């Protein structure tokens, strides 16, 4: 029982570190609740399965069932956010599975957090950002859209993918990847939100 309480406390510390890292870098507080709930939920289910009289195969199938119900929508989540989801899952599994000695679980969790800290560092990942934008013109050509947005925003648009083209209302919704420059115009730091461009 004491081991489970210790593991739960360590898991809570680990997920709070991960969430702190995410909020500091990406300024999206709305996903923090999801990360914590997924982490704690996976931890609880893993502890329950590990302490039940189940075979390794049964435990594996149980965990597979739990993880299979979690759906990550690529249209709503940036790849970095998906990476944070999997890190939250992995931390819950590592702490809940009951590795002996517990120092092994602590070491692996610390390694995972250190890797996330390094690979998601702004110095390593440059200033390339992604955004979903609403343009008040119907532009069907992606190169023309890139040129138009570069002029309007003052950023170097690396990629523009048209998500929706509305010829009736003269509107384009596009997913863009852009490099932050010295422009006075700024887009919200939140990745994936809608921004209107006129």
Report the biggest beta sheet as strand number plus sense, adding barrel if it closes.
Answer: 4 strands, mixed
Helix content: 55-70%
Instruction: Give the topology string: H per helix, E per strand.
Output: HHHHHHEHEEE
Which structural category fits the helices and strands? alpha+beta
Report strand %.
Answer: 15-25%
Largest beta sheet: strand ordering: 2-3-1-4
Number of strands: 4
What gap, in angstroms, lies between the N and C termini? Answer: 60 Å
Tally of contiguous helical segments: 7
Give the total of domains. 2
Uncertain stretches of 5 or more adjacent residues: 188-194
Tell the overall outline: elongated
Describe this structure in words.
With 198 residues, the chain is α+β, with helices and mostly antiparallel strands. The chain has two domains: 121 residues, no CATH class; 52 residues. It has seven helices and four strands. The protein has a four-stranded mixed β-sheet. Strand 2 and strand 3 form a beta hairpin. Helix 1 runs antiparallel to helix 4, helix 1 runs parallel beside helix 5 and helix 2 packs parallel to helix 4. The longest helix has 25 residues. The relative contact order is 0.13. About 4% of the residues have low confidence.
């Amino acid at each position: 029982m004491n081991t489970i309480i210790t593991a739960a406390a360590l898991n809570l510390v680990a997920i709070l570190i991960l969430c702190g890292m995410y909020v500091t870098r990406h300024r999206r507080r709305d996903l923090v609740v999801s990360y914590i709930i997924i982490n704690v939920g996976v931890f609880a289910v893993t502890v329950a399965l590990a302490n039940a009289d189940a075979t390794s195969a049964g435990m594996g199938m149980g965990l597979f069932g739990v993880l299979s119900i979690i759906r990550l929508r690529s249209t709503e989540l940036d790849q970095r956010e998906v990476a944070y989801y999997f890190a939250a899952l992995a931390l819950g599994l590592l702490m809940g599975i009951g590795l002996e000695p517990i120092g092994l679980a602590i070491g692996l969790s610390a390694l995972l957090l250190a890797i996330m800290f390094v690979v998601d560092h702004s110095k390593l990942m440059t200033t390339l950002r992604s955004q979903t934008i609403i343009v008040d013109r119907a532009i069907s050509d992606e190169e023309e859209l890139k040129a138009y947005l570069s002029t309007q925003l003052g950023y170097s648009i690396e990629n523009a993918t048209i998500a929706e083209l509305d010829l009736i209302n003269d509107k384009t919704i596009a997913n863009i990847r852009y490099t932050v420059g010295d422009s006075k115009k700024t887009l919200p730091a939140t990745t994936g939100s809608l921004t209107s461009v006129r």
